[in-house]
Amino acid sequence: MPHPWAIRLVTSLAFVSTAIPAIAPAQAQNAGFDALEDFDYWADLCRLQASAEDYEKALTACEQAIALSPEDADIWAQRSGILVNLAAFPDAIASANRALSFDPQNSLAITYQCVAYTALGESETALDKCNDALRVNGSWGRENPALAWLYRGTILAQSQQYELALVAYERTLLLAPEDSRTLTRQCQAYLDLAQSARAIQSCEAALAGNGQWGEVGPALAWTYQGQAYTQLSQYDKAIFAYDQAISLDPDNALTWAAQGQVLAALRHNQEALVSYNRAVEIRPDYALALLGQCTLLNRLSSYEPALAACDAAIDGDGDWGSQSLAQGWNERSIALTGAGQYEEALASINRAVGIQPSYVAAHNHRSTILWYLGRYSQALAANQQALELDETYAPAWFTRGVIFRAMGHYTEALAAYDRALALDPFNAWGWTNRSLVLWQLEQYDEALASAERAIALEPESVPALYNQGTALSALGRYESAIAAYNQVLALDPTYADALTGRAIAHVYLKDYAAAVADLQAAIALNPSDTLAQETLASLRPEIEQP
Hints:
Blueprint: H1 25-30, H2 39-51, H3 55-68, H4 73-85, H5 89-102, H6 107-119, H7 123-136, H8 146-158, H9 162-175, H10 180-192, H11 196-207, H12 218-231, H13 235-248, H14 253-265, H15 269-282, H16 287-299, H17 303-314, H18 325-338, H19 342-355, H20 360-372, H21 376-389, H22 394-406, H23 410-423, H24 428-440, H25 444-457, H26 462-474, H27 478-491, H28 496-508, H29 512-525, H30 530-544
Helix pairs in contact: 2-3, 2-4, 3-4, 4-5, 4-6, 5-6, 6-7, 6-8, 7-8, 8-9, 9-10, 10-11, 10-12, 11-12, 12-13, 12-14, 13-14, 14-15, 14-16, 15-16, 16-17, 16-18, 17-18, 18-19, 18-20, 19-20, 20-21, 20-22, 21-22, 22-23, 22-24, 23-24, 24-25, 24-26, 25-26, 26-27, 26-28, 27-28, 28-29, 28-30, ...
TPR repeats: 39-72, 146-179, 219-252, 253-286, 326-359, 394-427, 428-461, 462-495, 496-529
Pfam families: TPR_1, TPR_16, TPR_8
Protein name: Tetratricopeptide repeat protein
């Protein structure tokens, strides 16, 4: 399939000006010569119209010149370049072959063949042609070798040979030091190598360069700059760059998707979703943007639309950007897990691991699904695979703690949480779960301390506040426990366990009326709450006393 950016290239990639004053045929006759029979006139007009990007008129002028001098290699080469700009790639190759039949050393004609083969997706042939043009170093017409070096770099970058591409771009810039287009391609190559600082320098130079953008445009330079700042986690600068890009080209799906990634990293979920939605409006089958939608919808617990987005991503155009097909299957599995479809989720995560066996997060999520299914031994084995791949991956240690707790192995669970929190000490969920395990180990002071660490990180965490209440109650600090349960119920009045816990604290304080009221409310919310039922039954003698 032709590369769309390869269509407007020849004149726009001219590194030497081809602008020549034009004389219309009637003006030429008035000037004292018959322009209609003058080869130089038509050849110059061909170049002038090409420089003005009026390719149809340029082609007509070239045809007139060829009719007058059918063996002129340079005009056949010029015709080849015009045909490339008209996206007539096979004709462009044929025209270049005519040029080479008269001048086998015509480097410009060989270069235009390189351009045409690149557009046709025949990268190996294209690279051979660019190499031949540079090796021969024959006639370049009004151009210079910069065009061949630029295309050599572009082809190498497409095949992920970024270091070699950068060498080619440096050679281009020796011939055209301020060429905005080449500097943008250089920026892109540095970006692909994660050399973010150099990428930013190249994109800044492109934006300050000669304004000869060709197929790329300044919006793309801003987009690449934004991606480089994203790699450096300098999100404010990234957002500024994306805003600049969008103001120049509001219909670029790549930029909208890149902006969505930054906003998602900042946890600006709704704004990120808007950006991804816009990208999908522009490119409905854009895999990267659809995956972004799925990921955010999972984060927002909107599992059915998340599943639809992931399915669309997997069936999409295959352009995953910095993401991958394996991530698509992983997020699909997360959506199915959230929807309670655990067997289907397991099938999806198996696809992810099959595609990318080194995918740590997928192995960890697989262990989570197996935990949901009650297959604890298998869950532990999957978790072990994740940790063997990366023992510094904190989420896997958290999952390990969950599995061990489900198995009743509280000491091992505590050790796993300790490893996780050493790697990620600001994880409120981890401190909350650690407090629960400590409570089960009857280490109530430590349980209280862990719950309070969680609350310090996330003051409105209902589970952490509930665990604080249970630890305080176990320590006999019933008034403080009631205060903690009050906070829970202020945040979530339907939290039945908090009502039961508060009732038990009231019992110890011999406030039986309050205890009964809480227990009745708890049972109304959760009729299967056996602890509330048993506690209420045990209070009847106290209530019935005169």
